[in-house]
């Protein structure tokens, strides 16, 4: 069953979407921000269940308070094999650091010509903040391509102390 909830945060009201898993846990499938390109929207048949996301909301609160540098949440599957490889590489980028799109391409064994495909996979990351695509920047150090807007990317990197 698909469940959802909203929670407030410093980047705006976040929409959390998940799937109920065995043992009553919720596998987080999506975390969207207002105005996000390609963000989730509530669909007919989904059940609003804020209690299903208590752990995710707690961890997000700790992250935004500067008390958490990684997330320990059950994440739902999804995406193509290539996207899953790219998303796994995002999860390996340490808090407070940045890497280039080319760095991510190398980490997943893609050629230099695949940087655009890597960027597309990063842009389709359904778990903003939790899966830290905001830590990927241009090779020249510029902020590029964040589905929820560059000002939010800058805010997240500033929170993590990753901006010089």
From TrEMBL:
Residues 3-74 form the Methylguanine DNA methyltransferase ribonuclease-like domain. It catalyses: a 4-O-methyl-thymidine in DNA + L-cysteinyl-[protein] = a thymidine in DNA + S-methyl-L-cysteinyl-[protein]; a 6-O-methyl-2'-deoxyguanosine in DNA + L-cysteinyl-[protein] = S-methyl-L-cysteinyl-[protein] + a 2'-deoxyguanosine in DNA. It comes from the Bacteria. Keywords: Cytoplasm, DNA damage, DNA repair, Methyltransferase, Transferase. GO terms for cellular component: cytoplasm. Residues 81-162 form the Methylated-DNA-[protein]-cysteine S-methyltransferase DNA binding domain. The active site is at 133 (nucleophile). One of its GO terms (biological process) is methylation. It is found in: Cytoplasm. SUPFAM superfamilies: Methylated DNA-protein cysteine methyltransferase domain (SSF53155), Methylated DNA-protein cysteine methyltransferase, C-terminal domain (SSF46767). GO terms for molecular function: methylated-DNA-[protein]-cysteine S-methyltransferase activity. Its EC number is 2.1.1.63. InterPro entries: MethylDNA_cys_MeTrfase_DNA-bd (IPR014048), MethylDNA_cys_MeTrfase_DNAb (IPR036217), MethylG_MeTrfase_N (IPR008332), MGMT (IPR023546), MGMT_N_sf (IPR036631), WH-like_DNA-bd_sf (IPR036388). Involved in the cellular defense against the biological effects of O6-methylguanine (O6-MeG) and O4-methylthymine (O4-MeT) in DNA. Repairs the methylated nucleobase in DNA by stoichiometrically transferring the methyl group to a cysteine residue in the enzyme. This is a suicide reaction: the enzyme is irreversibly inactivated. Belongs to the MGMT family. This enzyme catalyzes only one turnover and therefore is not strictly catalytic. According to one definition, an enzyme is a biocatalyst that acts repeatedly and over many reaction cycles. This is Methylated-DNA--protein-cysteine methyltransferase.
């Amino acid at each position: 069953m698909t469940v959802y909830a909203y929670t407030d945060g410093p980047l705006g009201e976040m929409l959390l979407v998940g799937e109920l898993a065995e043992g009553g846990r919720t596998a987080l499938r999506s975390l969207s921000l207002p105005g996000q390109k390609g963000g989730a929207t509530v669909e007919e048949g989904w059940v609003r269940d804020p209690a299903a996301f208590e752990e995710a909301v707690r961890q997000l609160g700790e992250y935004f308070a500067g008390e958490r540098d990684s997330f320990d949440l059950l994440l739902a599957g999804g995406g193509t094999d290539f996207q899953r490889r790219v998303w796994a590489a995002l999860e390996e980028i340490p808090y407070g650091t940045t890497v280039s799109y080319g760095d991510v391409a190398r980490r997943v064994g893609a050629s230099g010509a695949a940087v655009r495909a890597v960027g597309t996979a990063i842009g389709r990351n359904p778990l903003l903040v939790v899966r830290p695509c905001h830590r990927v920047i241009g090779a020249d150090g510029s902020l590029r391509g964040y589905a929820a807007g560059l000002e939010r990317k800058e805010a997240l990197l500033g929170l993590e102390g990753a901006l010089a």
